[in-house]
Design brief:
The complex is a heterodimer.
Chain A: H1 12-45, H2 49-63, H3 67-77, H4 87-113, H5 116-124, H6 129-159, H7 171-182, H8 185-214
Helix pairs in contact in A: 1-2, 1-4, 1-7, 2-4, 3-4, 4-6, 5-6, 6-8, 7-8
Chain B: H1 2-38, H2 43-57, H3 61-76, H4 82-108, H5 111-119, H6 124-154, H7 166-177, H8 180-209, H9 214-228
The chains are: A mainly alpha, B mainly alpha.
Chain lengths: 221, 229
């Protein structure tokens, strides 16, 4: 066996463009899924029984079935209802919904760690409900689970590779494409692995740097 | 008609289970060794096992599956049957995640336990296997069951390299019946039931391994004290 990376070199631009797509879909579905997860959490924490059941059902279903099946359901199943999503839209919807179910559980941990007394203090100070939620509840909750959210982001980045199966032109897709053109399987897969690994590593490093900036208001950092 | 389709998917789910059980067992054994390796006193061993766990966990599972599928025939000049390729790929992945779980669990056992055993003159092997490991195992159970559910979900990717497990079977069925919604919904329900069963078993195991409740140990204490009186 002889490894030869020379054949891959001309494709580096393609790989990096595809990496950009991976980042794009990850960021987009993390933001959309993240916002949705707050709604799901509020449903779960709500006093209305129907909301609780809906939110728990949502989390249970999306966490206990494979992302690939979810992608297939959205991409191949929704057209039955006349909803035709293209590859990008289907990937975005599937990854966002999937991410929301994981983030909802993470955020729940965060909210539950905020002491009840803090919210009572906010009420005693006469803050309105929205301010209490955003500044007294949400902000410390996010700070507490920030590392878990970063992990989830990296995890989402890695799992976004599954969208390549329905043809989203992201990194994994480019790797497979180049593999079928050059037959340099090990080489191109190794470069793909390196790009995924390095990206995940850099995301973690940047996130750690951002933590100090984002939570500079914290008293005991 | 519907029953036939469901039976077909259930048969494929049997293959999903076969993959997950075999890779789960192999992955747990290798993962245990990786976990021990990561807290070993031997620097080289620690370095190698940590590198393995870090790298595998930092790369998409799908990419690793392709790596095994394309790589093994090139590296070792053997062709793997689809099931075997799936088994190897899932084992490689499972071992890394289980290794991380075991490392965390071993390190979560209070250091004092080890020191106490040492002070009592318990031999090294007994210290490891009868003092530390039982406690570490108990700590590891919840994350191990959590990971087993992930393994079942990851096994859906084995269909991509050509082995007909549940997801692949659902894909084939949807092409035959032209009803993707029905086929994938059935698959989703079966996956859900598998995951649900695993988490139930996990809870049962956790309860079985849990230290005796405070009530019963208090009872023990009260019966013990009069004896010393």
């Amino acid at each position: 066996m002889n490894l030869y990376f020379g054949d891959i070199l001309p494709y580096m631009g393609e790989l990096l463009t595809a990496l950009g797509m991976s980042f794009g879909i990850t960021i987009a579905s993390f933001v959309i899924g993240g916002l949705l997860s707050v709604v799901v959490y509020l449903g779960k924490a709500s006093r209305v029984r129907v909301f609780q059941i809906l939110a728990s059902g949502y989390i249970g279903i999306f966490r206990n079935t494979p992302l690939l099946v979810q992608i297939y359901l959205i991409y191949f199943g929704l057209p039955v209802f006349g909803v035709n999503l293209d590859v990008f839209q289907a990937s975005l919807v599937a990854l966002s919904l999937n991410n929301a179910s994981y983030c909802a559980e993470i955020i729940r941990g965060g909210f539950e760690s905020v002491p009840r007394g803090l919210i009572e203090a906010g009420e005693a100070l006469g803050l309105d409900r929205r301010t209490i939620f955003a500044k007294v509840s949400l902000a410390p909750a996010l700070r507490g689970v920030y590392p878990s959210l970063v992990n989830q982001f990296v995890h989402l980045f890695l799992t976004s590779s599954i969208a390549s199966i329905i043809g989203l032109p992201e990194l994994m897709h480019a790797v497979l494409e180049i593999n079928s053109q050059t037959y340099r399987s090990i080489e191109v897969l190794a470069i793909g692995a390196l790009l995924y690994f390095a990206s995940g590593f850099i995301i973690s490093l940047l996130a750690r740097g951002a933590e100090r900036f984002l939570f500079r208001w914290a008293v005991n950092a | 008609m519907f029953i036939e389709q469901l039976l077909g998917l259930l048969r494929a789910a049997g293959w999903t289970l076969a993959l997950c059980v075999s890779a789960g067992v192999a992955g747990t054994i290798i993962g245990f060794l990786l976990g021990v390796g990561q807290v070993s006193k031997i620097v080289v061993l620690r370095w190698i096992t940590t590198a393995y766990v870090t790298v595998i966990r930092g790369v998409p599972v799908l990419l690793l599956i392709f790596f095994v599928y394309f790589g093994i025939p090139v590296l070792f000049a053997v062709d793997l049957a689809p099931f075997l390729a799936g088994f190897v790929a899932l084992t490689v992945v499972a071992a890394a995640y289980m290794g991380e779980t075991f490392r965390g669990a071993i390190q979560a056992v209070p250091r004092g336990q080890f020191e106490a055993a040492e002070a009592l003159g318990v031999r090294y092997l007994d210290r490891t296997f009868r003092v530390i490991m039982p406690q570490a195992l108990r700590i590891a159970v919840p994350s191990l069951t959590g990971y087993l559910i992930n393994l079942v979900k990851d096994s859906s990717l084995i269909g991509i390299i050509g082995f007909v497990e549940l997801t692949r079977a659902a894909k084939i069925l949807s092409n035959l019946t032209l009803d993707p919604l029905g086929a994938f919904l059935m698959a989703a329900v079966i996956y859900f039931m598998i995951s649900f069963t695993i988490s139930r078993i996990g809870v049962a195991v956790e309860r079985k391994l849990a230290p005796k409740s405070k009530a019963s140990s208090r009872k023990l204490a009260t019966t013990a004290i009069p004896a010393g009186n």
